[in-house]
Amino acid sequence: MLRQEDKNSDLKSVNEVEQSSWGPAAEALTDQTPGLHGYQELCCLQGRLVNPKAQSLSAMERLKLVLQYFQSNSEFISNGICIILALVSVKLYTSFDFNCPCLPQYNKLYSLGVMIVPPIILFFLGVLVNRHTGVMMDEWMRPVGNRHKNPAIVKYLFSAMIQRALLAPMVWILVTLLDGKIFVCAFSVSVDPALFSGLPNNTGLDVIKIMAKVPCKEDVIFNNSSFRKAVSRYVRFYSQAIGWSILLFLIVLGSVGRLVKPCIDDHGTFLQTRYWSNYLDVEQKLFDETCVLHARDFARKCVVQFFEDMREDVVIRLPYPAFITNTREEWEDEEEERLHGISRQEQMDQLLNKWYYCKPELDVTRMAHRPRACVTWEDRHGKTLFSDI
Fold this sequence. Notes:
Layout: H1 2-20, H2 24-32, H3 36-46, H4 52-72, H5 74-95, H6 107-129, H7 131-141, H8 151-165, H9 167-179, H10 181-187, H11 207-212, H12 227-264, H13 267-309, H14 328-339, H15 345-357, H16 365-368, E1 376-378, E2 384-387
Helix pairs in contact: 1-3, 5-6, 5-9, 6-8, 6-9, 6-10, 7-8, 7-13, 8-13, 9-12, 10-12
């Protein structure tokens, strides 16, 4: 009965803290009231008692977990980089001040250059920053060694690389077509002026030069004339129609491919190809990380050895502490284990050459069935008392 009253008083104290929204007062009340910590944690879990410090720590932990997840998953990293390139292409186009030359011999050349050259640059940037590019080239160019090559893996990596690299260029092309300014500059000369009224014919210029000046709205020959606006709307209509048609075609093509592919391809083979392509990526990452750790330990060993050579032999007699469990030989054995028995530059060069020219076969049977010692306890008559077998 007394415990129930204590719990009720504790809950009442917590409710008072919630209503007043105190920060330091809540902590003081927690320190003064015994048994309140459990109820405060419960209230924090339910979101009723806010602790800014705990919230910031949990937010940092969540952000750390998200970053670790994206770092461990190269596919998400590649997708994120491609999306960033697509957004950069849109930003570049909106900040780009396009000025048409308004000359018949340069309009189409300049406009098509603006429409085609940036997508090519963005495509090669997408190929350059895509991790699948390096993995694919390593798998394609490596010697066979103990591991046979699978052309399906190279094909899968190439397809993934091309799909991601084409995202930013397609965004640029679609944005230019839907905007229409570049298309008007390129093809205003190809429009038949007889379709529109109000052609300025008192300027002394031929029709081709007049049509080439349609994108230049500040030109004096189009003052108080609706001809330029009509031609611009006409050409922009075709530009937007082409842009929406390309977008619709890509969406339909992707949808049909997603629906038809499981019916045509063997899904089991596809899973195998995707698994081993991911394996190649993970294997290369682990090898690089292991090389970095080994290089750090090797460098530490070389630096310590250099300083040890500069020191003279000194004998110091001290009592052996009881809390030290590892002897000097044990520490040296541990360092040698981290170095994997490699103590010279020639050994490391030989190991790296062997990794490139003779990749290990995909068989971990020796690691999975590693021999182990089994202990059996028997009494003096040979009867088994307990066994690890």
